[in-house]
Every structure is written in structure tokens, then in C-alpha cells.
């Protein structure tokens, strides 16, 4: 009997302590956490946008260097890749489209970094830049699919990065 009383008393202390902690978490969850979470969530998304844009910067940088040096990109022997990168659509006014992508990805990286540090206008510029990249990507995918009937792996990877950036920017809380 004495052991039973000790066990139930100990269990009662654990239960009451557990209930106290759960009650505290549930009581203050609605008031404290969400205000901090929105700010932290926003900063995490800005950091993700910056990191993802670095991947796009690498791809666009590689394609820009290949286009400016006249070398062929290592596409794994895919003739479609050579057809896309060598087409008349690969340059605008003699400037490789990848160079515009390089500038755009660098801008996204810069704006996301500034936005993470609290610059209000950087968010607007980030949204506008990613929106312009999204529209340009849709046009370039149209060109590959319906005009050239060929797809470049690097271009598709860049398109995936732009779509991911668009999703991250849309997910940003106001």
C-alpha cells in the first residue's frame, strides 16, 4: 500500500507538471509565437530566395561564359541543347540571353539580401524582378517548345529555379 501511494503521488506530480507545461504552451501560443513567427518566416524565405538565386547565378554565369568565349556548353551530348543555345533566340542585340539572366539572378540575390535586413523597397524590387523573370521564362519556354522544338537542360533548370523563386516570393507574408 505504501508503495502504491508513493507511485500515485509521484505520478500525480509528473502529471500536474506536464499539465502545467502544456497549459502554458497552449495559453501563450496564440499571442506570442505568431508575431515572432511571421518575421522569422519572412526572413527565412528571403534567405532561401538568396540561396536559390545563387544556383541560378551559377547556371547563368556558366552559360554566359560559354556564349562569350564561343565554346559549346557541356550538355551531355544532347543536340537539342546545341540547337537552343546556338539559335537566333539565344541573343538579344548581340548580347547572350544568359547574360540578362546573370544580371537578373544577381539582382534577385541583392534584393533578397537587402529585404532580409529590413529594407522596404527591396521587397518591391524583388517582387518585380522575379515577376519579370517569370514572364521571360514563359516566353523562352514557348520558344523552345513551339518554335525550336528543342529543349536545353540548362535552360530548363534555370526555368525551374525561376518557378521556385516565384513560389517563394508568392509565399512571403505581407
Largest sheet: 2 strands, antiparallel
Gyration radius, to the nearest Å?
A: 26 Å
Q: Which regions contain 5 or more consecutive residues with pLDDT less than 50? A: 29-33
Global mean pLDDT? 85
Work out the helicity level. Answer: over 70%
The count of DSSP E runs of length 2 or more, i.e. the number of strands, is: 2
| Shape category | elongated
Element order, helices and strands? HHHEEHHH
What class do helices, strands and sheet pairing give?
mainly alpha
Spatial strand order of the main sheet = 1-2
Measured by DSSP, the beta-strand proportion falls in: under 5%
Number of helices: 6
* End-to-end distance: 62 Å
What does this structure look like?
This protein has 174 residues and is mainly α. It has six helices and two strands. The protein has a two-stranded antiparallel ribbon with strand order 1-2. The longest helix has 37 residues, at 33-69.
List key phrases describing it.
single chain; 174 residues; mainly alpha; 2% strand; elongated
Fold blueprint:
Layout: H1 2-29, H2 33-69, H3 79-85, E1 91-92, E2 95-96, H4 97-116, H5 120-148, H6 153-171
Antiparallel strand pairs: 1-2
Q: What is this entry, summarized?
A:
The chain has 174 residues and is mainly alpha-helical.
Amino acid at each position: 500500500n505504501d508503495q502504491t501511494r508513493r507511485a500515485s503521488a509521484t505520478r500525480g506530480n509528473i502529471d500536474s507538471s506536464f499539465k502545467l507545461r502544456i497549459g502554458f504552451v497552449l495559453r501563450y501560443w496564440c499571442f506570442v509565437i505568431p508575431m515572432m513567427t511571421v518575421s522569422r518566416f519572412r526572413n527565412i524565405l528571403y534567405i532561401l530566395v538568396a540561396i536559390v538565386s545563387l544556383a541560378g547565378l551559377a547556371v547563368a554565369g556558366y552559360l554566359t561564359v560559354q556564349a562569350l568565349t564561343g565554346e559549346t556548353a557541356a550538355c551531355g551530348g544532347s543536340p537539342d541543347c546545341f540547337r537552343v543555345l546556338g539559335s537566333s533566340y539565344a541573343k538579344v542585340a548581340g548580347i547572350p540571353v544568359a547574360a540578362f539572366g546573370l544580371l537578373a539572378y544577381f539582382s534577385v540575390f541583392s534584393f533578397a539580401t537587402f529585404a532580409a535586413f529590413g529594407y522596404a523597397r527591396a521587397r518591391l524590387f524583388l517582387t518585380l524582378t522575379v515577376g519579370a523573370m517569370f514572364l521571360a521564362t514563359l516566353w523562352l519556354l514557348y520558344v523552345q517548345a513551339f518554335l525550336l522544338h528543342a529543349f536545353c537542360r540548362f535552360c530548363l533548370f534555370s526555368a525551374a529555379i525561376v518557378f521556385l523563386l516565384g513560389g517563394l516570393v508568392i509565399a512571403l507574408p505581407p
